[in-house]
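Appendix B: complex inputs.
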Amino acid sequence: MSFSISLAVNGVARNVELDDPRVTLLDLLRERLDLPGTKKGCDRGQCGACTILVDGRRINACLALAVSHDGAAITTIEGLAHGDELHPVQAAFIAHDGFQCGFCTPGQIMSAVGLIGEGQAGDDPERIREGMSGNLCRCAAYAGITEAVLEAQRRLAAPEREKAA
Amino acid sequence: MKNFEYVRPATIPEAIAAAAQPGAAYLAAGTNLLDLMKGGVARPERLVDVTHLPELDRIERLPGGALRIGALVRNADLAHDRAFAAAYPAVAEALLSGASAQLRNAATVAGNLLQKTRCGYFYDIASACNRREPGAGCDAREGENRQHAVLGWSEACIATHPSDFCVPLVALDAVVEIEGRAGRREVPVEALHRLPGDAPAHENTLEPGDLIVALRLPAEAARFAAHARYLKVRERTSYAFAVVSAAAAIDIAGNTVRAARLALGGVAAKPWRARQAEALLVGVTPDAATFRAVAEAALAEARPSGDNAFKIELARRLVVRALTLAAAGTPARLPALPASPFASQPGALPHA
Ligand SMILES: Cc1cc2nc3c(=O)[nH]c(=O)nc-3n(C[C@H](O)[C@H](O)[C@H](O)COP(=O)(O)OP(=O)(O)OC[C@H]3O[C@@H](n4cnc5c(N)ncnc54)[C@H](O)[C@@H]3O)c2cc1C
Ligand code: SF4
Ligand code: FES
Ligand code: FES
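Resulting structure:
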């Protein structure tokens, strides 16, 4: 049996024919939609390499069935930059050496975008570390990652503060 | 992963009819079920996707003050719901101490309640496991069993239930609303999971097709809001299951305890309510000696099921600490490391 689902992926409407209900969002993105930026680490919810935004919320794409997400809006690492202009979180990761080998980085960046959107951590490093604990880094670039998220959160929160003032 | 038929019902009666068939399972976020299916541990023939069912994603206050939480409310949304977190702070703390932010964003209320044990032999299909395959034996008895049960276990199975959420829920007399082929009924969370006895595969009191539609927290349980904590010892500070956990809630008037609630996690195949221990607190002025006596009573029946005698004393000490912090008062804002029994700064009080 095949299923047709419609998704908005990085702002582009995509209609997908699924011939197999077992396909995860992760495999759909990587194998069928030519978006390999989202990484497969553990494939079991344990590492965060596959983090994407679904309807603005960060989740693990490896434990999400594509067929169940009919109608969802998905953002992947490929959808963050505007042309050559990096997203503030991407720029902050470069400025603060938030990576070494880079394998975990798309997941870290998507998780950081989700974390900042959730607005629970503020600029408390301890809350940022806790909020990012779902993303493991084999190279242990954690110190740089925390610095990067702190700076990006300050930059992204600044216009909000101005609005409030 | 074995292939399956995917069904997406539009109504609750359709869902129940589709899931009552042998080999069918409900799919919520799938963060536990898909993991088990990838490992060949769960092999459903049909998945009945409940995530598109209407009206199961609401949090509403009922006349009389109870909160009714739809089965599809996501763990993160519940923990951050202001009315909910204000009335039942230990439940919010337990939710935020579980899994990772990504998993909490996906995981649903009902899925969390019904998640399976994390016993490594249950997950490894090359091992003997009575819970996965009745009559096969239990490789955990002679294997890696540091994390296994110290209360309510049997010769057939020594696994624990891994949910954090469930622990304060049983302490606070939460109830699940179930719809099934025979209509609607209510079951206290405390009666949802079964101890293993000689049938560990029979994990809970649900019948085929039974759908959890909502969770209810009684208005009365909000009396503990000012003095309620959930603490969880893990092998790393975050993103790890409980070795042992404790939910403590006290209602104090002046210096005297009017009512108290206590439950333990990570110690049995179900969240463990310690009623006899609770009774020791009523009418007394809480102090360290009382808390220790309560902890002794809570673990009075505990015995190791393997290489895990340490969990019994660990659980006692965690009970003392949870009661101590509950008596000190619920923090105005949840600590940066929810449920951590350890201070983040050397020498500081643990999140006092
Ligand atoms: C790496 C990792 C770490 C984790 N750490 C923790 C932790 O520290 N603490 C913790 O508590 N949990 C932890 N979890 C478990 C997590 O909380 C559960 O996977 C999650 O709560 C399950 O919810 P779900 O919606 O994804 O359920 P699913 O996986 O979709 O379903 C789980 C079970 O519930 C059944 N079900 C779902 N909805 C209904 C319904 N409405 N009625 C009847 N049956 C239903 C399904 O058939 C299935 O058997 C962790 C998980 C992972 C992968
Ligand atoms: S403890 Fe229970 S779940 Fe683990 S192997 Fe034994 S029977 Fe299976
Ligand atoms: S690949 Fe999804 S969490 Fe590791
Ligand atoms: S940069 Fe190498 S795993 Fe994180």
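Chain A has five helices and five strands.
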